[in-house]
Design goal:
By secondary structure, this protein is of the alpha+beta class. Helices cover 39% and strands 13% of the residues. Bound molecules: zinc ion.
Length: 232
Amino acid sequence: MIVAADGNVSARLGPDRILVTPTGVCKGFLAPEDLVVTDMDGVPVRSGVKCSTEIAMHVVCYRHRPDIKAVVHAHPPTAVAFSVAGRVLEPHVLPEVVVTLGIVPTLPYTDPGSYEVPDAVGPAIENCEALILEFHGALAVGDSVMSAYFKLEKVEHAAHILLMAHQLGGIRMLSREAILKLQETQKRVGITIGLPPAYRQGYTGAAEDLDQEALIAQVTAAVIRQLQAGSR
Ligand SMILES: [Zn+2]
């Protein structure tokens, strides 16, 4: 997921405290005392320590998602390659991903370390569990560090499968019926990840008449509209 000193991990300690990895340290060599405690503005509570330069991206996730307790950011290569190639991660292909992650949107490029990133991530993370930052990396949230990390792992694994499917001739999507059954599973296990209108119960539009490319375009446009509306 990362090389050298890439990536950052944080956990919510309390109403005004976040524990976050320090800047410029390989995560394989971290000691407990290296971790930095900050307030909810991302400012270290102890002077002389430096937390991740991407702390603002974490803070905004905790602000927009009171339900989460951890944020993991990394640079998963296959998922990032999709964004470099200008492709989104096609939704509605892998049942496990449909149920546990829903749509993983790709946010348009923003300057890493700038306030453009949290401004884009905040509204977006309200509607998803993981997202891709174009040309940069990916981010996932969860009720623990491991659950957020596992979501990131699922994103990269899904991207790898989709890449191989593309190489083998293209992507096929699950049928509308299959998606509706998965939606029932979501309800049963209490996951409230949104599905696009064409897949909602009672939808009377012509979902069956759409070809796969048109459906992907429709879903992508809906996600982008939602992100743009949220960032205004
Ligand atoms: Zn990064």
